[in-house]
């Protein structure tokens, strides 16, 4: 049994829990019919997964990157070359895996190509202090949506080469904006998220940002105005997957608050109750890819095509696939250990810094 591994000193159970929640959230966004979220109507609350699950994943990727790179202890100059080499190699594998999944023809946006690019963009920030990383993340979060709104309006995206570029870059998760979420996670990891003080500060900051972003969206009445594609309509919105300024602020804050809630919950007896979700969160890549592969197989057999999203949702696949994934991940984690894809990703070159002889920080516990 690998019970001890899920509670090892080098793991952060709250991060596993947050990733498990993000996995389930992405399953829901893919597999459920979801109505637009209206906070005053509990019947629409499943809409909370739209956009926020993937932003939570991106923020957690930054946290995992920071923990992998030493957590509160920044990597030394001697450690950086080997660490960066591993991350470049891993990014290449993630991108290739993402392209393979795109080839399945499943009508959802595959996040892995975007992840690969985001990890590469985060490399220069690994040696920075936490405050420096968080300032950069905040600056990008405030400025990049202006650039994004302009870039998205270019007619080139409607050409064949533009559509191919969007496909290969994972442009539904555009890196000019989404690097802010990864850097926010990296900065939080650098502040030592194991400390109660840090977790409470994250909760307060996350709630404040969420209230600011969603509050401005509500009082602006942007949802009541038809979106004609004008620059301001694209920029000043908190709509899921818009990469609008208010989504960056609101959903970025939501992700930070959600991570802090999971960290705080794992300080209580909930750490035992949430074991299945934590086991799933310990192998998020395996869970994500398995869901898509099962989708492709089931849709091909039952519908004769993988491309009919509505018909597949009508078969009510959410609960069977979610329960099967959580159960499978729990059994695997307890009987075998690391997820198969997570295990495969560790067979990388440059595991040690040859110049200093010091081990690169282990990423067994929290790889993106």
From TrEMBL:
Domain of life: Bacteria
Keyword Iron in record: no
Pfam families on file: DUF418, HGSNAT_cat
Transmembrane segments annotated in the record for this chain: 20-39, 51-72, 92-121, 133-151, 171-188, 200-216, 248-273, 285-306, 318-337
Coiled-coil intervals, chain numbering: none
Residue span of region Disordered: 347-368
Keywords: Membrane, Transmembrane, Transmembrane helix
Domain Heparan-alpha-glucosaminide N-acetyltransferase catalytic as annotated: residue spans: 11-202
Domain DUF418 residues, every copy: 245-345
PANTHER family attached to this UniProt entry: HYPOTHETICAL MEMBRANE SPANNING PROTEIN, INNER MEMBRANE PROTEIN
Name this protein carries in UniProt: Membrane protein YeiB
Organism name: Arthrobacter russicus
Lineage: Bacteria, Bacillati, Actinomycetota, Actinomycetes, Micrococcales
């Amino acid at each position: 049994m690998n019970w001890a591994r899920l509670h090892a000193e080098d793991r952060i159970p709250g991060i596993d829990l947050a990733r498990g929640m993000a996995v389930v959230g992405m399953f829901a966004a893919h597999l459920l019919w979801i109505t637009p979220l209206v906070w005053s109507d509990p019947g629409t609350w499943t809409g909370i997964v739209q956009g926020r699950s993937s932003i939570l994943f991106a923020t957690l990727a930054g946290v995992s990157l920071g923990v992998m790179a030493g957590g509160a202890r920044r990597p030394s100059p001697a450690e950086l070359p080997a660490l960066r080499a591993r991350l470049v190699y891993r990014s290449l594998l993630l991108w290739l895996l993402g392209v393979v999944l795109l080839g399945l023809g499943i009508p959802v946006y595959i996040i892995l190509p975007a992840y690969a690019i985001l990890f590469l963009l985060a490399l220069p920030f690994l040696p920075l202090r936490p405050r420096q990383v968080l300032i950069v993340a905040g600056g990008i979060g405030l400025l990049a949506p202006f650039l994004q709104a302009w870039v998205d309006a270019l007619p080139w995206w409607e050409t064949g080469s533009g559509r191919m570029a969007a496909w290969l870059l994972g442009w539904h998760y555009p890196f000019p904006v989404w690097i802010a979420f990864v850097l926010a996670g990296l900065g939080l990891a650098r502040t030592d998220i194991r400390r109660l003080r840090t977790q409470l500060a994250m909760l307060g900051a996350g709630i404040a940002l969420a209230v600011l972003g969603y509050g401005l969206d509500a009082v602006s009445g942007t949802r009541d105005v038809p979106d004609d594609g004008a620059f301001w309509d694209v920029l000043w919105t908190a709509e899921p997957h818009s990469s609008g300024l208010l989504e960056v602020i609101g959903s970025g804050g939501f992700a930070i608050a959600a991570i802090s809630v999971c960290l705080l919950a794992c300080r209580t007896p909930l750490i035992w109750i949430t074991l299945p979700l934590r086991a799933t969160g310990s192998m998020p890549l395996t869970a994500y890819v398995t869901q898509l592969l099962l989708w492709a197989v089931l849709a091909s057999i039952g519908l004769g095509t993988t491309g009919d999203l509505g018909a597949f949702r009508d078969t009510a696949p959410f609960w069977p696939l979610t329960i099967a994934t959580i159960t499978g991940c729990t059994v695997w984690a307890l009987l075998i250990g690391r997820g198969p894809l997570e295990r495969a990703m560790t067979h990388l070159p440059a595991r040690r810094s040859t110049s200093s002889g010091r081990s690169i920080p282990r990423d067994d516990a929290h790889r993106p």
